[in-house]
Write a sequence for this structure.
C-alpha cells in the first residue's frame, strides 16, 4: 500500500495558459474545477491527441446543447476536468482507433447520433444494439469453440453477454457485449425539475444510488452556482461511504462464493446485510435513496450518532476477523493471486478508474484528485496495490473498507456540531450547465447536466462501469476458463450503470 | 480453513422466522405509501408523482397505483394528510388491480392465481426451483434477490433453491421493464420452463416500467410481454417482500395471510 498522490498539481492559471496555447484553443468561462477549451471542428482530433500526450485521462465524449450544439470530450488532468469543445454534434468515429479508452464511448455516441438505420462508423458490429444470437468468431484452430455466456446467466446476475472463444482451458479471446439493458435513462431526465431528476439518477445504477445522486446534485448545484450546506455534505459523505462498504463487501462475498468458501460467503453476507439495515434505519431505504437532493439533503439521518458509531465499531471488529481468515485461507487466495492480471500501461491506455485502476498501481480517486463536498475537509488515504491481479483488486477493497470506516468516524464526529441548514433553495428559473462527480464504489463517476428555465434539459452520464468493462476483454492473459467468476467479481462493476 | 467453523457458529442464529412470525421493518422504513384520504383532492395533485401513480376521477377521488410507485416521497411531502409511508415489508399482490389503492371500490379485489402452480405446490413442497432473469433492472433488485440466500433470510429453509437451468425452474423472477434486447431472451426462458410454472415480477420497473420506461426502449413492464402471477412492487422491494411474493406464487401462504 502506498499513500496516494496525484502528481504535482500545477497552479490552475499556469495550466490553463500553457494548455490552451498548446492546443490553440480559446478559454471559455466555467465553474471552478472545469477548464473549458474551445477549438475548431477540424482541430478536435489533434487536440485530443495532444491531451493524451500530456497525460490526460479520458472520461467521456458527448454531444452537448449548451451554450450551443457541440461535440465535447472530457478529460481528467492535474486535479481539473479539461472540457474540450468543438462545434458540430457527431464525432467522425476515428479517435477510438488510436486510443482504446475512447472506443466504446465514441462508438456509442456515433451510433446514437446516426439513429437506428445508420451504420456503425468504422467499427463493424453495432455496440448499442446487441443480438444474443450473433456469434462472431475470430480465433481459428482445431477444437476452438465459442461460449455465448449471457445475457441470461447462471445465478442472479445482471444481463450482459460474454462471448468466450476457448479450446476448453485457455481463453484466447473474450468479447464483452453490454447494452442489453439500455433503458434510455439519460433521456428520462429531460423536462424534470432537478428535485425529481435525482430520483432518475438514483436508478441509473441502483447499487451506487448515493454516488449517482451526489454527482447529479453536485452538477446541478455547480450549474446554478449554489452550494450545499456543510451539514448536507457531511451526510452525503456518510451515505457514500456506507454505500462503498456495502459494494465492497458484496464483491468479497461473491469471491468467497466462487471459491465455494460458504462460511466466508455467509460471514461477508451478514456484514453486508448489517450495512443495508443500517442504511434502512438511517434513511428509510436499504440503498440510501430519497435523501440526497440538489441543494442539500432532505432530512437528518434517523439514528443517534452514538448508536451509529457503536454499530460501525461492531462491524469493524467482525470485519477484521473475517478479513484475517479470508486472507489466511489458501484455497481462496490461490484463486485470486495472479488471476486476471492487468498491467499498469494497459489500464492507463483504457483510462480505467476505481478499485480496478488502483489494483494496478494507479492512485486515481475522484475524492483525492478533485475533492468535493466533505472530502475537502476529510483526509483521504488512497489505497493502491501494484500487482494488477484479482488479489490486488480485492486487497484494494479490503484497504478501502478500513479507510471508509475511518472516514465515517470522522464525518460522524463532525456531525456532532449543532445542526445547521440541510438544504438551500435552487433559483426557480435558473439556467446553466456543468459537470458533477463522485467516486462511486465502482470508480469515478462524472455527470453532465444542462438546465434551462429551472428544468433539466440534457444529462450525460460517464459511468465508471462502461470505461472499466472494456478492459474485461483483456483480463485473461494467462488465465483459464475456471478463473472467469473470480476475475469478473474482482472487476465489481454495475451493468445497469454501463448500459444506462 | 478449520477456523471458519467456529467463526460460522459465532453469533448464533440470525435468520428471520418469517413467514411463521411477522418480520417488522425498522421505524421510518419506506415500504409502501398509504392513502389516508382519497376524497376531494386538488386537480394538480396527480402531477406531483413522477411516475403517474396518482390519478383522480371525475369526482376528484384519488387512486394510488402501487405498481407504479417508486417510493420517492414526493406525494408524502406535498400532502402529508393524504399520503404517508408505511413501514412494512409485505407488499406483493397476486394481481395488478390489487396494487391500486383508493377509488370507488376501495382496495382492488384479489384475483386467484391464474396458473396451477399454487395447487401443485403441495407436491413440490420443499423443492421449488427458482430462476432469475434481468430484463433491464437498475441492479438493486439483483442484490435483494441474492440476499434471500444469505443467513439473514435463508429461503432454502422454506424449500426454495436457485437453479441455473430454466428447464429445471418452477418460478421465474423477472426484474426490469423488459428492454427491447431482453424481450426475446425472456420469452425463450419462459417457454422452456416446464408446467406448472409461475412468473413473479420483482420491483416497480418490472411491474409497470417505473421511472425507467422511456418510449420505445422498453415494454414498460413484464405483463406487456408475458402473464404475471405475482407482482412485487418496490424500488427495490426488500428481501422479505420478494419472499412474500415467492410464497404467494407457490401457494405456500394461505388466503388469510395474503395482505394486499
Amino acid at each position: 500500500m502506498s499513500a496516494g498522490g496525484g502528481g504535482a498539481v500545477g497552479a490552475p492559471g499556469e495550466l490553463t495558459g500553457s494548455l490552451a496555447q498548446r492546443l490553440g484553443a480559446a478559454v471559455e468561462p466555467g465553474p471552478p474545477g472545469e477548464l473549458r477549451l474551445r477549438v475548431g471542428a477540424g482541430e478536435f482530433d489533434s487536440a485530443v491527441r495532444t491531451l493524451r500526450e500530456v497525460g490526460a485521462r479520458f472520461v467521456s465524449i458527448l454531444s452537448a446543447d449548451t451554450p450551443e450544439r457541440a461535440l465535447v470530450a472530457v478529460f481528467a488532468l492535474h486535479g481539473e476536468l479539461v472540457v474540450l469543445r468543438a462545434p458540430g454534434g457527431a464525432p467522425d468515429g476515428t479517435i477510438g482507433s488510436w486510443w482504446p479508452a475512447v472506443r466504446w464511448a465514441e462508438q456509442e455516441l456515433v451510433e446514437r447520433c446516426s439513429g437506428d438505420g445508420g451504420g456503425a462508423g468504422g467499427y463493424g458490429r453495432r455496440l448499442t444494439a446487441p443480438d444474443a444470437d450473433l456469434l462472431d468468431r475470430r480465433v481459428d484452430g482445431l477444437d476452438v469453440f465459442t461460449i455465448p455466456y449471457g445475457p441470461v446467466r447462471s445465478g442472479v446476475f445482471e444481463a450482459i453477454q460474454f462471448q468466450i472463444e476457448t479450446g476448453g482451458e485457455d481463453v484466447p479471446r473474450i468479447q464483452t457485449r453490454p447494452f442489453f439493458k439500455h433503458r434510455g435513462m439519460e433521456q428520462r431526465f429531460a423536462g424534470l425539475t432537478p428535485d425529481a431528476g435525482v430520483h432518475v439518477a438514483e436508478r441509473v445504477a441502483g447499487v451506487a444510488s448515493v454516488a449517482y445522486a451526489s454527482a447529479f446534485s453536485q452538477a446541478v448545484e455547480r450549474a446554478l452556482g449554489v452550494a450545499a450546506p456543510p451539514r448536507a455534505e457531511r451526510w452525503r459523505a456518510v451515505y457514500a461511504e456506507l454505500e462503498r462498504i456495502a459494494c465492497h463487501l458484496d464483491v468479497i462475498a461473491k469471491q468467497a462464493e466462487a471459491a465455494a468458501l460458504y462460511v466466508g460467503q455467509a460471514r461477508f453476507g451478514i456484514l453486508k446485510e448489517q450495512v443495508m439495515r443500517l442504511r434502512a434505519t438511517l434513511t428509510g431505504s436499504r440503498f440510501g435513496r430519497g435523501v440526497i437532493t440538489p441543494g442539500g439533503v432532505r432530512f437528518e439521518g434517523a439514528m443517534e450518532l452514538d448508536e451509529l458509531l457503536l454499530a460501525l465499531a461492531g462491524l469493524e471488529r467482525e470485519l477484521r476477523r473475517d478479513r484475517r481468515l479470508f486472507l489466511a485461507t489458501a484455497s481462496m487466495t490461490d484463486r485470486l493471486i495472479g488471476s486476471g492480471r492487468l498491467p499498469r500501461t494497459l489500464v492507463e491506455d483504457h483510462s480505467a478508474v476505481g478499485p480496478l485502476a488502483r489494483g494496478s498501481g494507479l492512485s486515481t480517486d475522484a475524492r483525492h484528485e478533485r475533492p468535493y463536498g466533505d472530502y475537502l475537509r476529510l483526509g483521504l488515504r488512497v489505497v493502491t496495490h501494484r500487482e494488477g491481479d484479482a488479489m490486488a483488486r480485492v486487497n484494494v477493497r479490503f484497504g478501502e473498507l478500513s479507510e471508509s470506516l475511518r472516514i465515517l468516524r470522522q464525518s460522524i464526529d463532525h456531525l456532532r456540531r449543532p445542526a445547521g441548514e440541510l438544504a438551500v433553495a435552487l433559483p426557480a428559473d435558473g439556467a446553466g450547465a456543468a459537470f458533477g462527480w463522485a467516486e462511486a464504489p465502482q470508480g469515478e463517476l462524472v455527470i453532465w447536466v444542462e438546465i434551462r428555465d429551472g428544468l433539466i434539459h440534457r444529462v450525460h452520464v460517464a459511468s465508471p462501469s462502461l470505461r472499466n468493462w472494456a478492459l474485461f476483454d483483456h483480463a485473461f492473459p494467462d488465465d483459464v476458463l475456471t478463473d472467469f467468476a473470480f476475475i469478473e467479481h474482482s472487476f465489481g462493476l454495475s451493468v445497469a450503470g454501463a448500459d444506462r | 480453513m478449520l477456523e471458519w467453523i467456529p467463526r460460522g457458529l459465532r453469533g448464533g442464529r440470525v435468520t428471520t422466522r418469517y413467514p411463521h412470525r411477522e418480520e417488522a421493518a425498522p421505524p421510518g422504513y419506506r415500504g409502501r405509501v398509504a392513502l389516508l384520504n382519497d376524497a376531494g383532492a386538488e386537480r394538480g395533485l396527480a402531477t406531483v408523482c413522477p411516475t403517474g401513480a396518482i390519478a383522480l376521477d371525475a369526482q376528484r377521488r384519488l387512486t394510488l397505483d402501487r405498481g407504479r410507485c417508486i417510493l420517492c416521497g414526493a406525494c408524502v411531502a406535498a400532502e402529508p394528510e393524504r399520503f404517508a409511508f408505511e413501514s412494512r415489508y409485505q407488499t406483493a399482490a397476486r394481481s395488478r388491480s390489487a396494487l391500486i389503492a383508493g377509488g370507488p371500490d376501495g382496495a382492488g379485489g384479489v384475483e386467484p392465481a391464474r396458473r396451477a402452480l399454487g395447487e401443485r405446490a403441495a407436491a413440490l413442497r420443499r423443492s421449488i426451483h427458482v430462476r432469475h432473469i434481468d430484463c433491464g433492472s437498475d441492479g438493486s433488485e439483483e442484490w435483494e434477490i441474492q440476499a434471500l440466500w444469505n443467513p439473514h433470510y435463508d429461503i432454502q429453509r422454506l424449500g426454495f433453491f436457485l437453479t441455473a437451468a430454466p428447464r429445471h425452474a418452477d418460478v421465474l423472477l423477472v426484474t426490469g421493464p423488459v428492454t427491447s434486447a431482453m424481450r426475446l431472451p425472456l420469452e425463450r426462458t419462459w417457454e422452456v420452463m416446464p408446467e406448472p410454472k409461475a412468473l413473479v415480477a420483482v420491483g416497480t420497473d418490472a411491474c409497470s416500467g417505473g421511472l425507467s420506461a422511456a418510449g420505445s426502449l422498453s415494454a414498460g413492464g413484464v405483463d406487456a410481454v408475458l402473464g404475471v402471477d405475482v407482482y412485487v412492487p418496490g424500488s427495490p422491494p426488500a428481501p422479505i417482500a420478494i419472499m412474500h411474493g415467492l410464497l404467494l406464487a407457490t401457494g405456500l401462504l394461505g388466503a388469510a395471510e395474503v395482505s394486499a
